[in-house]
Structures are given as C-alpha cells and as structure tokens.
Amino acid sequence: MTAPPTDRPDPSTSTPLLASPAETPVIALRQRRSLIGVTLGNGLEVFDWTCYAVFAPFFAKALFNPQNATSALLSTLVVFGVGFAIRPFGGLLFGWMADRFGRKQSLLVAIGCASTGMLLIGLTPTYASVGVLAGAVLLVARLLQGLAHTGEVAAAYTYIAEEAPPARRGLWSSAIYVSGFLAIMAATIIGALLTTALSEHQMATWGWRLPFLLGAALGLVTLFLRRGMEETHAFTSATAAPNRNASSQRSLVANLWTYRASGTRVFLLMASVTAMFYAWAVSGPTWAISVAHLDPTAALWAGVIALAVSASVLPLLGSLSDRIGRRRSFYIYGLGVAVTAFPLDHLARQGAWQFGLAMTIALVLFAFVASILPAVLSELFPTGVRASGIAMPYALSAVVFGGTAPYLQQWTAQHDVAFLFVGYLASAALLGALVMRFTPETAGISLEPTTPDRTDPIQEKK
User: How many Å apart are CA 198 and CA 346, to the nearest integer?
Assistant: First the structure.
C-alpha cells in the first residue's frame, strides 16, 4: 500500500532544468518556433469559437427567421451546442492519429479543418436569400470545426507538455491559454471596433462576416508555420524504440479502458472548468448585452480589460504550480469560485465597469487551473496513449458541460432562475477540487517513455 498523495511535487521525479535540451541554442530555437506554431493554431481555434459567441446577436437574424429575435438567437446557440456533439468523434479520430502518426500530423489536419469551417461561416448565405439552407450551412461549418477542435486540443496539449522541461511544464502550459485569452481579446476588440464603426444594419448584413474571413486567412499562415515544426522527442523516442510500449500495440478502445481511471479524471476535471470558461470568457459579453442589457460597445470593452488582466497572470500562476503543485492550484480555484459565484453574478448586472470587474475576478480564479490544464492532463497518461487518453474524455465533457453552457445561461436568465446556473458553476468548481484531492501529485514528473505500460498508473497508486 502506497503513501497518500502529497500536495507538493516531489523534486526527485523532476528532471533538473540544467538537463533540459533548451540549453542547446539550435534546439531552443526549434522549441520557440514550435511553441509559436502550436499556440497560434490554438489561439485561432479559440478565436473562431469566440467570434461565434460574440457576433451571435448580430448574425442570428441574418441566418435564421428574423421575425422572432429571441428564437433566432436561441437557434444560433443551439447550433453552437451541436458543434460540440461531434467532438467525441473528433477525439477518436485525432487522438488516434496523434498517438499513431505524431502530434504534428494531427495538428496540421486540425488547423486545416478549422480554417475551412471559418471560411464557410464567412460565406454563409442569408435566411432571406436561401431560407433554412442558411442554417444548414452554418451547422455543417460548426460540425467541421467541432470535429477539429478536440484534435487540436489533444495534440496541442500533448505537444507542449512533452516539449517543456519537466520543472517548468506548468509555465510552458500556460502558453496555451495565454494564446486562447489573447484570441478572445482579439475577437472582442474586433467586435467593439465593428460595432463602433458600423451601423446596426451594416453589422447585421455583412459586418459580422469579417472576423470569420480573417480567421480563415490566418489559418493558412498557421498551416505554413506548422509544416516546419518537428515532432516531440517523447513521441519519436517511443516510436523508435525496438519494442514499442504496450499501449501502441493495443486497440484504441483497449487503451481507453486500460487507462479508464485517468480518463475519468480528465472528464471530471474538464467538467469543473468548461462551463466556467464558456460562461465568462467566451459568452460573458453576449450575456451582458442580451441579459443584463448593457451597451454592446461598453460590454465588449469591459470584457477586453478583464481578459487582458487574466492573460497577464497566467504565466505567473503556471510557474506557481511548478512550485506548489497542481493540486493546490485546483483547491484555490474550486473554493474561490464557490465563495464568489453569487456575488459576482450580482455585481455583473450593475453596469459596464461592474461587469468588467466581476469578469476579471472570475477569470483570474479560472487562470489558476487554465494555466496548468495541458500539464495536468498530459501527466496522467504514458506517451503511447497520451493524446487519445485526453481527447475522448475531454470531448465528452465538452459535449455535456461546454456545449450546453451558453444556452443554459440564456435560458435560466429568461425564465428568472439564473441562480440555478450560478449554483451549477460553483458546484462544478468544487468538483474539480474534490477530484484533485484524490489524485496523486504529478508536477515535475518525466513524460519520456520508459518501460512498457500495462496498467493505469493512477489505479496502481490507489
């Protein structure tokens, strides 16, 4: 029987920073280029999903029946949620691809699918010109993007975690959400600028298309950058070994079953953060406009300030987790959200600056876990099953908790039971802290392939 898990990382399991290949200038340059390629693609994915949420009030009446504005907005959010339904299939496909053919190949295909989806949305005909076909085209685009998103997440998480020095993996992992927050800021700033410069009629007819077309163009740039990336050392070492680890020789279903304890943890941890992310970071300004009835421009700029503050603390909190451990970061997040959820909801309804302050506090709390998610999830699996082990439970959790969040947020507000959604966010955050209480500390462990893996290491520690 092993000793109970501790809150602090074990220094003996960490590879010293001096041993990092980043000391070699050529390898350091390669790592920086790879970091840019991964984070830019991840940011582009988030940019797309954020643009959908930010511009939903503007294009809802253009692509759905404009006779009922509320119904049109809800229909748009339903399509947003349906985009999540395809994610488990994306998890199966891209997770398998990343574990069999490499993280780089999965990243290339994912960004290609995402760019195509953005182009489709930017060129979708209106309801007035083609009727319900407009909604059908939008649905196809969202399904394509949902398919690619899980592949992007699984490959990006594993790539950056495997490339990072073990003693600084939390810091490196924060780059994923830094790029995500900056992407949300970019989408929000574009929204604020467009709503300032264009009339309501111009926004509803063609203004909302501009960010999606811009995203499609940036996708081509990202594709070019990723073509020059190299595969991670952990993956190439595993595939080059004379006797590849056991997980690489088993079927995908067998691997998922073998590592079911780690997979369950991924599902529950993502359940604790997904709704929080979409409610505040992605749909926060939309909620402020449609529910709190704030001025659209003021709400969007308040969101930009909140995102800027939270993005600036992500590297600090990622580095902090390298010293205090992953578990304590989740404890701070869980308890912090539980205590502040209802006060922040009340504060956000009082005006534009109050909404900005509430969003800032919520996102700083979220940053405690957002900064380390790639590290935490990657540290639960061995090399041969790392991407697929993350992808499937991540996708399932996104379907259940992410795709429904914007709709539930709007629906509960319109039926005067918003307190149910707020309580839901608080309970989910506490769930994450509880899961980590029964998860061994993983900060600083090596992700390099070692001996053949036959059982779930998390199960063995029980």
Answer: 32
Question: Which CATH architecture best describes the domain 20-229+251-445+452-460?
Answer: Up-down Bundle (1.20)
Quote the CA–CA distance of 244 and 100 in Å, as a whole number.
11
DSSP state of 48: H
E strand intervals along 28-105: none
Alpha helix ranges (H) inside 198-251: 200-205, 210-227, 233-240, 246-249
Q: How far is CA 70 from the centre of its chain?
A: 28
Q: What's the one-letter identity of residue 228? A: G
Tell me how crowded residue 27 is: count the other CB atoms within 10 A of its CB. 15
Q: How far is CA 175 from the centre of its chain?
A: 12
Highest mean pLDDT among 200-204, 302-306, 330-334: 330-334
102 touches 235 (CB < 8 A):
yes
Return d(Cα 449, Cα 440) in angstroms, integer. Answer: 19
- In single-letter form, the type of residue at position 166 comes to P
* pLDDT tens-digit map of 342-355: 999 999 999 999 99
**pLDDT computed for residue 22 by the predictor:** 45
DSSP state at residue 2:
P
Q: Is there a contact between 84 and 399 (Cβ–Cβ < 8 Å)?
A: yes
Nearest CA-CA partner of 307 in 140, 182, 452, 131: 182
pLDDT in tens, 116-157: 999 999 998 887 788 778 888 888 888 888 888 888 888 999
Q: For 223-273, how does the pLDDT look when each residue is reduced to its tens digit (9 = 90+)?
A: 888 888 888 888 888 877 655 555 555 677 888 889 999 999 999 999 999
User: What spatial distance separates the first Cα and last Cα of the chain, rounded to whole Å?
Assistant: 8
80 neighbors 52 (Cβ within 8 angstroms): yes
* Interaxial angle between packed helices 103-122 and 210-227, expressed in degrees from 0 to 180 and rounded to the nearest 10: 160
Torsion-angle region of 429 (φ positive above 0: left; ψ -120 to 50: alpha; else: beta) = alpha
